[in-house]
Amino acid sequence: MHRLILAGWMAALLLLSAGPAMAQDAAPGSFARVGFGARGIAMGNALVADLSGDASPYYNPALAPYHRGQNLSASAAFLSMDRELQFLQFATPIAPSAGIAVGLIHAGVNDIDGRDASGYHTQTLSTDEFALSLAFGNRFGDRLAAGAALKLYRADVLDTVEPTLTLGLDAGVTYAVSPRVHVGLVLSDLLARYSWNTSQAQEGGRSTTDRFPVRVRLGGMVRLVDDRLHLTAEYESRFTERQQRVRVPTTAGASVGTAFETERLLLHGGRLRMGASYRFVEVFTVRAGLNRIGAGDLEGLSPSAGFGIEQPLGNLDVRAAYAVVLEPYVRDGMHLLSLQVFL
Predict the structure, then answer these.
(1) Cβ(221)–Cβ(231) under 8 Å?
(2) Pseudo-torsion of CA 169, 135, 275, 83, nearest 10°?
(3) 101-135 pLDDT tens trace
């Protein structure tokens, strides 16, 4: 029994680190907030208003109708501490003014050393999380676009605990103030929560619910130098619900005692992110970004950089991208490679 208890706690804690860094985001579903692909992460994930046609609807479902054609993209991250992270997406415009995208994110931790209360090795554990999304957007005239995305999350923590599933909803809009200036607004992870039942894993197990933080992101994009230079920025306001037990004095006749009650707290936090890209020539673009501004001290910042290459192969338009990002606090480097093919 001690083995199961210890292994369960280890797996649950390591699940929180399935994203690039445990210190980066300890809330449920953190792996799905790392970003999407090398291009977006290189630009600091500040793409809520990127109407260039290259941004994934992961950042805003209202970006779906701006894709230039049917395309398939795949990305993989190279991480330390036996972590893994992959992305897959298919996107296509729908005539006359809509677009749709299907995306998949997978994160996991392998080769977890499970030990009992005496410190002896018991088994090798692993965790996996998945996020499957379906985004649809439509343009209303030349300036306004709106979209919504339905997301299915699944988390596998331990063999003796049933995987948990949840649905989340994103809703977003974009507006072209001018051909060079765009703004966007997104509400992310509405309704999403993980519900756990550990009664099968240990005696005294119970059911718990972990709500995803609800995020409101507002940002803009400016296109300069004959559309070669793109500057982006966005601010994220994050609302997280937490529960805490508090002591409450009670009286029964002449005696005084205490009882416990559960209170719900709504925590708020904010962060700023910025990005830039510059196309030197038609086939080569450099990118840079800065994430988590205001989320902590300087050690909590997450700078990033990368580049993209475009090269036709026969009738196919092929794009490759690379990004490197420094994880906050731990300062490990995460490397990403992406490949996108226009069909």
Answers:
(1) yes
(2) 70
(3) 999 999 998 877 777 777 777 777 778 999 999 99
Thinking of the domain 2-342, which architecture would CATH place it in?
Answer: Beta Barrel (2.40)
CA distance 35 to 91: 17
Please state the pTM of the whole predicted model: 0.84
Tokens 């059911």 correspond to 207
Nearest to 74 by CA among 61, 64, 85, 86: 86
CA dihedral 192, 194, 195, 198 (to 10 degrees): 180
Query: What DSSP element (H or E) covers 318?
Result: strand 316-326
Residue 109 contacts residue 15 (beta carbons within 8 Å): yes
Three-class SS of residue 204?
coil
- Is the separation of the CB atoms in 31 and 15 below 8 Å? no
Nearest CA to 176 out of 46, 59, 63, 54 is that of 63
Q: Which residues pair with 166 in a beta bridge?
A: 153
Question: Which tokens sit at 43?
Answer: 């630009």
